[in-house]
Amino acid sequence: MQNLLFKMTMGLGIAVLAAQQVQARTCAARDDVVTRLAETYGETRRGIGIARQGAVMELFASDETGTWTITVTLPDGTMCLVVSGQAYEAVTGALPPNA
Question: What span, in angstroms and rounded, lies between the C-alpha atoms of 98 and 63?
């Protein structure tokens, strides 16, 4: 249990640090970012969630290129890239129980 809590805490800390660094460098109007993700990488929105303070988290991905991007849109309409990667795969099955 402690190992799982440690991993979750570290993951959250890394995500927060990444978001702080990204916000200063890769933010733009939401429409511009969505257009660029679609035109450059073929990514479309695959998931959405509400974050703190009215922010919206979105997952964009492409089945063709395998790329994916997680973004956060602030209440003022500014969208920031949080993290991106490769080898996207949609999973529809239930997660296996914890071992």
Answer: 28
pTM: 0.69
Strands (E), the chain: 27-29, 44-50, 56-61, 68-73, 78-85
pLDDT at position 50: 92
Count helices and strands (H / E) in the chain. Answer: 2, 5
Q: Place 3 in a pLDDT band, splitting at 50, 70 and 90.
A: low
Indicate whether 1 pLDDT > 80: no
Question: With contact defined as beta carbons under 8 Å apart, do 61 and 46 qualify?
Answer: yes
What is the spatial distance between Cα 99 and Cα 96, in angstroms, rounded to a whole number?
Answer: 8
Mean pLDDT on 73-77: 94
- Grouping H, G, I as helix, E, B as strand and the rest as coil, residue 88 is coil
CA 91 to chain centre: 16
